[in-house]
Each structure stands twice: as C-alpha cells, then as structure tokens.
Amino acid sequence: MSLELRERDLDGFFEVPFAVYPADSPYVTPMRSDLDRYLDPARNPLMRDGGGRLTHFTARRDGRPVGRLVVHTHPASNLRHGTRRCQFGFFDCDDDVEAARALFARAEAFARDQGCDELVGSFNLTAMQQAGVLTDGFAGVPYTDMVWGPPHLPRLLEACGFAATFPMSTFEFDVGPETADRLLGPRQRAILDDPDWTWTPISRRQFKVRFEEARQCLNDGFSDNPMFVPLTPAEFDFQAGEMMWIVDPAIASLVHYKGQPAGVVICIPDLNPFQKAVKGRFGPTALFHFLKARLRRRRAVIIFYSVKQALHGQGVNGAMLHRVTRALDERGYRQCGVTWISDENTASLRQMEKLGARRLHRLHLFRKAI
C-alpha cells in the first residue's frame, strides 16, 4: 500500500479526521473556512505581520487521507523566550506509524531549514489558541477551543522520538448558585460592594471597544506566563473577532477599576454541537443547526480570564468568576468548561478547586530536539 505526502493539500487536510476517526468519537472539527484562513500566510497576521513561516502536509495511503500536520515558526515567541523552536499543530492521524514518521520527517526538515533546534506541539496555532495533545480523559466531550485526539496519537509521537512535557488539564464544573457562592470571601465581597469596581457586558454594540480592553487585560495579566506572547490588535482580532456573532453578553464581562479596564472573563456558549452537526461546513442546513444549538444550549466555556498584574492577589478573579457563574445559572446553562490550565498555574488551579471543577482532559506538549 503506497504512502504519499502532499504539501498544502487543504481539501485532503480537512478530510483527515473524518477518514480516520469514528463518526461517534468526541472529535470536533474546526470550520473549514477557519482552517482556510489560519493556514493562509497572507491572511494570518502571525505570518503576514510577524514574520512566521508555515506549511502543512497531508499523508495519503492509496489516495485516502490518513494523516495531517501543520509546522510553523513563531519568531516573537522565540525572541521573547530565548528559544529556537519550531511548532507543530493539527496533528491527526490513523494508527499508522509509517504515516506519522513521514509527516514528522518533513516537519523536522522544515524546522532545520528555519534554523530551529527543537520541534514542539501541538499548537493550533499558538499557546493562546488550542494547545496540547490529549493523554488522558479520552471519553470527555470537549468544549469549544479544546482539543481531542485518540489514545494512539501520544504513542505515535513517542514512536517518532518525541517526549511528553508541560502537563496541562481542562476542566468542567456544574453551574448553580451554590457553585458561584463558593468563590466568595471577604475580599471578593468587598470588590462586589465597592462602586469603584464597575461591570460591563461585552455586547455587539460595543464589541470592538470591549475586546480591545480585553486584549489589554490579557496581555498585562498573562505577561509572566510560560510561552505567552502579547497579542497584537491584528492577532487578537484574527483569533477572536468572530466571537461578536456568538457572544452572550450576560456571561462575558469586563471589570473596570476607577474607570480603567482591570480584568476580563471571556465566556461563550459551547459551539461544538453546532460544528459537529454541520461537519465543519457552512452549507444549506447551517442556519437551522445554529438556531437549534442556540435554543438547546446548556454548556458554556471559559476561553480565558485575566486580571492586570497590579491587581493580582486582591480577589478579583474570584469576584469575576462569581458574577459569571451566577449569570450562567440565570441564563439556563448547566455545565461550563475551562480551557487548558498548566500544572504550574497554581492560582488558577485553586479557583478550579473552589468551583468544585472536575478534570475533563489531561494534555501534554511533546518535544523533540532536532
């Protein structure tokens, strides 16, 4: 059986998960239109403005798509963190060692050509988007912005010479008034009662203004986090701008302190049921499935939350999450997911404990020196 690798074969790239994962698996594809723009160096500001290089490969066995891989550089990350790293992402593959090795051989050649000395992933496409390879919790149904892959992917990576590093987890908690109240202590109550702290929903009418404030809070609050690179306005808009059409203003909120943006929680309805129903394509039935998912939505997901560093340790995160959790309950949501948190982030892990959150998935990055 012959194996063929194709570069920039977007049709085959998109079809790989449908060809190799069962239809009833938890995998949820990105929308094809999103993949198209993510993987277009002329449209993605990470490459267009930031000087990154990107390509993608599809493995076909006797014409059938059996594996895929993106490989790219992130110059701003390498400069900030003193690395010579090349990153891989969107690794999906049949349980086929030959196909995996062929894909990573091409990725390693690309990385060496770019002067890199390590290959690390999975990043789809950065640490502020989907990150990690699933290593436990394979039965957990992912929320928007969470990755899923079958148990053989870590085995394939190990067979290709990669080692697991940087452990992470995603979480899920049940929504209800008692959940929200677990977050309240004296500091959180003081913030909620203080008129210097004002709470502003992220509505469509003021979306651009609020999202720029959200970017400022993210960049400031995450500045010291591992792998973090401040997002430019163009990068943030490219990654999150389309949230304007799906945001629920009641559950996404900015907090201002004395009139200045201080913290943000980006929480949105879980779009995965819609994306799974339409199989990642905007076709004739997409509007029907979107409205159906909207009427039946019971799950939301916290994409990120951040407080400016000058206000760390004052209880702001707990106050924000309390308000969001109460709003989720009032809007009829029953579960909420939280995207990846590293084992190093003890402050966020404490918030998960207070929420009574359970671990949904276990993930790792995989690294190989080249």
TrEMBL record:
Signal peptide: none
Lineage: superkingdom: Bacteria
Protein name: GNAT superfamily N-acetyltransferase
Native organism: Caulobacter rhizosphaerae
